[in-house]
Specification:
alpha+beta, Aminopeptidase, eight-stranded mixed β-sheet, globular, binds coenzyme A
Length: about 170
């Protein structure tokens, strides 16, 4: 079994240094309703053909609110991660997005590490996700975090021509 990433008991808000000289410090914290327009912006930017609609995000906030984490520099959101709380010790990562201009600076890894720490502290023994197999950056990130492909490629998983690779992290 692959161990989950190093023990990290989360507490929020967590303050991080700015992502460059003279850059404002950043926080990872639970999302609030006022964040939703920014979450929607990130979603539309990353997935213009199929972002979560606002009403879905609004209901995720009520239903999964403790599991919607954002990275915030006090001005804009750099990214967000959304997961399901453990059910029978299993969780799903539903979404991970970093704004275009912030990519490649470790934000995705920070958000995932924080969420994996939360889920682990809540008793998750396995964490699953699906990813577009052509999304090399995301596949590499998940692989580096200890996820492994789980079962064969799911052809048409999200509809015709929308294959997804299922990945799983277990402890
Ligand atoms: C996938 C995504 C969240 C990664 O966020 P990020 O902040 O750019 O990633 P990080 O800087 O934390 O990099 C994490 C890992 O990704 C890999 N990576 C980063 N940029 C990469 C690139 N251009 N090509 C290949 N791998 C890359 C690195 O291996 C890195 O691993 P390391 O930390 O062990 O070195 C971001 O690209 C994104 O939002 N993409 C659009 C939305 C999306 O596809 N979400 C995932 C849906 S399943």
């Amino acid at each position: 079994m692959i161990p989950l990433p190093e023990e990290h008991v989360p507490s929020w808000p967590r303050t991080l240094a700015g992502d460059g000289p003279g850059k404002a410090s950043r926080q990872i914290r639970k999302a609030v309703e006022a964040d939703l327009p920014e979450v929607l912006r990130l979603d539309r930017e990353a997935f213009p053909d199929g972002p979560y609609p606002y009403f879905v995000l609004r209901q995720f906030l009520d239903a999964l609110g403790d599991h919607l984490l954002v990275m915030d520099d006090g001005d804009r959101l750099h990214g967000y991660v959304l997961a399901t709380p453990p059910h029978h010790a299993s969780s799903w990562i539903l979404s991970l997005i970093v704004g275009h201009e912030r990519r490649g600076n470790g934000v995705g890894r920070e958000l995932m590490t924080e969420m994996l720490g939360l889920l682990r502290a809540e008793g998750a023994a396995e964490i699953m996700l699906t990813v577009d197999p052509a999304n090399e950056t995301a596949v590499m990130l998940y692989h580096h975090l200890g996820f492994s492909p789980w079962g064969p490629l799911q052809e048409d998983y999200l509809g015709p021509g929308e294959a997804r690779l299922r990945m799983r992290l277990a402890s």
